[in-house]
Amino acid sequence: MAHCPFDFFSDGKKHTICLVGGGGKTTVMYELAAAWAACGRRVLVLTSTHILCPADGSFAADAAAVHNLWQQRRYAVIGTPELSTGKLTAPPQDLYEALQLQADVILCEADGSRHHPCKAPAVHEPVLLPDSDILLAVAGMDALDRPLSQACQRPQLAAVFLDCSLDSVVDEQMLSALLLSEQGARKNVGARAYYIVLNKCDLIKAAQQEEMLRLLVSAGMDEHRIWLRERGE
Question: Which of 38, 88, 104, 226 is the most buried (most CB within 10 A)?
Fold first, then answer.
């Protein structure tokens, strides 16, 4: 992957990062995990909701398996297997607490989007780790120019918040509003540092990228906390 431009990536500090939104959130999470692990950092990956159980051998059923993966400079995924779905849910609390102190970086997928590029959170979302210090919101730029009903998970909630119809075509103003609002991706951010990944930027025009960046920065986002990411990075 291309080097992550965010300051927390190379500051050498311990971080617990929750990822929310859609449009490649899981991909970004695993790429960050792999990059940190390759640098020798002990990386723990989990979900507070549901994720697919990885097929690459990175799932660790217990603390011993986690340490074995760390010794190989690999990240470790923990969770509770759901046999009926093949997915993982949140790990046992005692396992998480035991490993929490030993990990250098913890990455947690804190909501789902069912493969939609953007989303509006339900009442019970996101499920943030209380100890997390960073909230990383991901949105796919392929949401632009598509009807809200197709591009957004829970479009009915988004339509109410955005004061538009389900047939409204998602534009830069709407997508930036979903990313900036506490009714959107910024929900429950609290004192956590907030970062945004605009994913799949290679699918849109340069002018659309520039407009998204302009809207986010003019609303108070630090430009250095926005990643214009292309597929395959």
Answer: 88
